[in-house]
Here is the input.
Amino acid sequence: MRRTVFPHKLLPWLLLAPQLAITLIFFYWPAAQAFRQSMLREDAFGLKTTFVGLANFRKVLSDPNYLNSMRVTVVFSVLVAFFAMAIALFLAVQAEKIVRGKGFYRTLMIWPYAVAPAIAGMLWLFMFNPSFGTLAWPLRQLGISWNPLLDSTQAMGLVVAAATWKQISYNFLFFVAGLQAIPRSLLEAAAIDGASRRHTFWTITFPLLAPTSFFLLVVNTVYALFDTFGIIHAVTGGGPGKATETLVYKVYNDGFVNLIMGDSAAQSVILMIIVIALTAFQFRFIERRVHYG
Amino acid sequence: MRKNLFWLAGMMALPVAAEAKTEISWWHAMTGANAEVVTKIANDFNASQSDYELKPVFKGTYPETLNAGIAAFRAGQAPDIIQVFDVGTGVMMGAQGAIKPVAEVLKEGGYEFDKSQYLPGIVGYYSTPEGDMLSFPYNSSSPILYYNKDIFQKAGLDPETPPKTWAEVWAAARKIKESGAATCGYTSTWLTWIHTENFAAWNNVSWATNENGLAGTPELKIDGPLFVKHFQELADLAKEGVFVYGGRTSEAKQNFTSGECGILTESSGGLGDIVKSGMNYGIGQLPYDETAEGAPQNTTPGGASLWVMGGKSDETYKGVAAFFNYLSQTEVQQFLHEQSGYLPVTMAAYEATKGSDFYQQNPGRETPIQQMMGKAPTENSKGVRAPNLPQLRDIQNEEYEKMLAGQQDAATALKNAVERGNAAIKEAVGG
Here is the structure.
């Protein structure tokens, strides 16, 4: 393959400039600020600043509340990623079977994706708030003592459900596309050989969906880690106790509510490292090992 | 045609007139009816003189407004006046150099600042231990008791007599639940502000050392026997389903306005929503513990005050002083009090409202003032202050939630809140 070579030295830089500028301003600059802040101990107004080196990191990592929020984040992310993908895959497979009104069904499935996280949170809150929720009352009638304001398991269930519901559409789209990319001939051959539907799914469809699934796994994990802030903020505010305080929520709470800038910055640096690791992991290993049909 | 020409001439003259005026920015967090009050006050002030132009800007919730102010200060773009809620007071006081004390602004602006004209309970809270007023109290409120008269009637309780003590509240709440008049007897907003900070002041017990933090770094004392007793009773009621927890801030108001709960303790500033719901409500004093010596003492103010940011021009400060002077006028304060349910800041405005038939027309509206003014404050009841009060409240809320969920008893919850809180204070002071 021949490489395209620009005759000018300047032109490629010029063409890249907008993208570079955006990356510099919206990623490198704030990231550098976070690094700087994470080494400082400062009052909210920035009047007194002391350099403390890695003390903020030591403090954060030895804080039992931080470890708790790490545990919460793992539980939350695993549940959200699993349910969002499993349900989306199920729905995508069902959508494939429909003969009439496929487009209509798919459009309906995609709608929740257009809902902003905070709004999604409010919707679920209106349905499940123990005092005014429309669905809380029937739950109580069924003899379930529904109170996510105090019951940590129920609170976690509620935010997981809201976050999952919002992400299903996105996953659904990718799975539908993935399913369409599977060669018909393979499925027909299986049918001729007398394989059951379930058998065909697990031995042909599912493995061939691997690239889509792995891509979605990374996207969903990152979604659960970062984009669910609005939902948690609207539904539980991190409570009861600290039962739904994820890492991102704690960064916000420590920095913008409790005004402990150093701790908050150190936590965001740790989060940045986690994301870089996740992305590197995806590109290094998963991209290589996944079989692309 | 001639009319148009006049119009044109007017338009051309306008920028010249505006240029001569000094602009004063005011960031605030008021919504709904209270935001209309802000706009009206600003417009009236602008119309009352021609040197300054006051521009109110809505900046979101209380914490959002405070954060916006802090971020703006760090970027060198701070507003002239910023409204900061009660819990942010400690943060602002710690920021010497970022703010300019209101007493100073008024003096330099040529106004005499006479402390005796202001309600002592409110002004004391926003002053240094030496008595210099740091911020201008704009909207102050106090927790009171609301009850649903229809539910009281149904439960066989006297709808004209609100319960006075906590023991009476518990009894009435149990009766409401048992009689089936409502599914929940009692609920409360703000367990931290009402059941901890004001509970301490109202029953004259210590919230923390050093005059609750007003005279120095506080060490929490909310694990005292009266607190333990009170919270254990609350936890027991929660277990019976008589007390229903609504959330950390003012969410529980909905449990009351929806008719789910018969009794509510809430800020006097929450009156607007309760009136709007159209329910048949009654107002009573905040309940006290009859076993506490000297109770009821006095309640402490919540709400927000106006802070003046540092590093502005003399002309700006003159304008701010003129505005605060305007805001202190009796008619303005009376308007603020009667419109919003917040307390008047000056004695004259209180007397003027008393002189009119407003309190006869609106029974219960005087209750929060009487609570605050009833007795001269002790070292337990001047208010509470900590460099990190928002964080302390967070910690308390977490422990209370675990307690109400039945995971720990009141003694453990309060002991944890004290230990974690004191560690956080130490950290905040040391850093």
